[in-house]
Amino acid sequence: MCCKRETNKEVMDIKSILSILFISGAVLAAISSCTTMTIGPDATLSLGTKAPSRGGEFKLLGMDIPQTGYLSADVEYWTTIHFDADPKPDIRRVCFNFSGGSQSCVDVQAKDVTYGSHPYFRVSIHVPVDSKKIDCYAEYVRDGETHRTNTVTYYVVALRKPEE
Asked: Which of 21, 32, 133, 164 is the most exposed place for a label (fewest CB within 10 A)?
């Protein structure tokens, strides 16, 4: 004979391995479709479940402050806030609570809101010295009433004081 025939045991082993791989892939696909992961510059991992939006719901998913190195208190940063909403919300302003007690609210301009499969809006902020954590929420209008979203948190790696 020119070829080796596989035994029933070898065929069953291959089928078992393929079944395990297929089931594992299906489970990973299901988990990744319902979970958002955020890895901040401080290498912390944040997992959050993204539930489907109900009519009129506006939910913040996370925020990013692009930075190279450490944040500096004398620099204005364009912050990107990711959200999920149905239908498109009328976003009025976003507020930031900084560790240390200070707060800053910024009006959101319609031109800074991007819709699509991964909607977000952008605003500029100054981060106070010694901030370690930034909590963020948005205010929006629905049916003539102002509502507040959930709060998302951003952890600051380190903040450099302005050089004198």
From this structure: 164
The pTM score is 0.62
Compute the distance between CA of residue 114 and CA of residue 105 in angstroms, rounded to an integer. 20
d(CA 66, CA 138): 20
- Residue at 44 is within a domain: no
Name the one residue in this structure whose structure tokens are 């507020």.
95
Task: Check residue 62 and give its pLDDT.
Answer: 94
Q: What is the CATH number of the domain that holds 132?
A: 2.60.40.1930
User: 149-158: per-residue pLDDT in tens?
Assistant: 999 999 887 6
- Contacting residues for 48 by C-beta, under 8 A, at least 6 apart: 35, 36, 37, 38, 61, 62
Handedness of CA 139, 141, 114, 54 (dihedral sign): positive
Quick check: is 122 in a domain?
yes
CA distance 142 to 3: 72
81 domain-assigned:
yes
Q: What is the domain range of residue 76?
A: 51-160
- Domain count within the chain: 1
